[in-house]
Amino acid sequence: MGKSNRAEVTARAAEMRAAQARKERQQKQMIAAAVAVVVVIIAVAVGFAISNNAKTNGTAGSTGTGAGSAFIAKVTAIPAATFDAAGAPTDANAVPQKVQGGEVLTADGKPRMIYVGAEFCPYCASERWAIVAALSRFGTFEGLAPTRSATNDGNIPTVTFTESTYTSDYLTFNAWETKDREFKPLQTLPADVDALFKKHNPQGGIPWTFYGTHELPGSGIPLDPFLKHTGDDGWNEIAAQMETGAGDLGKSVDASANMISAQVCQLTGGQPANVCTSPGVTAAAALVQK
Length: 290
Hints:
Layout: H1 2-57, H2 71-75, H3 80-86, E1 97-98, E2 106-107, E3 110-117, H4 122-135, E4 139-142, E5 145-148, E6 157-160, E7 165-168, E8 172-177, H5 191-200, E9 208-210, E10 214-217, H6 234-244, H7 250-268, H8 273-276, H9 279-285
Parallel strand pairs: 3-8
Antiparallel strand pairs: 1-10, 2-3, 3-9, 4-7, 5-6, 9-10
Helix pairs in contact: 3-7, 4-7, 6-7, 7-9
């Protein structure tokens, strides 16, 4: 009996050790599986953060939204009645300054208008809305793309001129964006433009809009209203206000566009007549510095 009992005890002990070993293996497997799940969750979170950061802080043309570019069609086709209702700008900063010794620049047999800005710049962001609206009355843009000013500099929805071209029977328009949203070099000014920029704008401030005879350093549009439209639908909100001339910024942007149009009309000799003799442009023309 003693030998039999010892054998049974030994067998039970072996079974208990085997059961314990199986339990430990199961626990290790469960821990490993849990760790794997956590790793996957962290990887997904990091990937989402990187993706979101790229959208928000990206380079030229990145927007951080699926808003697309449909809003551009509205900005380039503001109704004439809306421009006329906006009239002349009330902010003196929107009026280009007379350039001492300035003269009309020409390119391709047409008067030339120059813009120098950067994608990170919030004042450039606001001014581009008016430039696009105004110049669309004289010609056609291609390649405009949505972007924002830098995240830490307003994050204002706007468009970029980086890949754009402009065609007009009346005017040559050249634009450069010198840095992207992350303050990295983007486009280099050609020698002739760089010389004009340094001569007439020695402080190097942007945006800088140059008509040869006149210049507009900075933007003539109040910035604060734009800061209320930095959400994913900001582009559409701004475009809708410009289309109607209503809201907290529609009229000011359209009035600034009238000022730009009046300055261009001085270069083109009043052409096209339907634009240059319109009530909104005529009102702004009274402010053109002689």
